[in-house]
Design goal:
- With 93 residues, the chain is α+β, with helices and mostly antiparallel strands.
- It has a single domain, classed as GIY-YIG endonuclease, CATH 3.40.1440.
- A three-stranded antiparallel beta sheet has the order 2-1-3, with helices on both faces.
- A hairpin with a 5-residue loop joins strand 1 and strand 2.
- The chain is globular, with a radius of gyration of 13 Å.
- The two termini are 16 Å apart.
Length: 93
């Protein structure tokens, strides 16, 4: 079995939130920082990690990403605030 998938949210330089999935968060964040991960974040750098949720397989991650993308901006920020200290979760990955 491979690495578990991660759902993450980034805050872009213009204040917008970007949601994505990956099985290698460090690599994906490096790609975002270099402008090679997505067209959306390429023009909105720098980005800051605001939310990380680990789970199971790709299917789980895609469902969770869709659920988060259905939330309003206010609901996303509430999720970010109530999910606990981000630094602890980043060290685990």
């Amino acid at each position: 079995m491979g690495k578990p998938y991660v759902v993450y949210m980034l805050e872009c330089s213009d204040g917008t939130l970007y949601t994505g999935i990956t099985c290698d968060l460090k690599r994906r964040l490096r790609q975002h920082a270099q402008g090679r991960a997505s067209k959306y974040t390429r023009t909105r750098r720098p980005v800051t990690v605001r939310y990380v949720e680990t789970g199971g397989d790709r299917s789980w991650a895609l469902r969770r990403e869709w659920e988060i993308k259905q939330l309003t901006r206010e609901q996303k920020w509430r999720l970010i605030r109530t999910h606990g200290p981000l630094a602890d979760r980043l060290e685990e990955l």
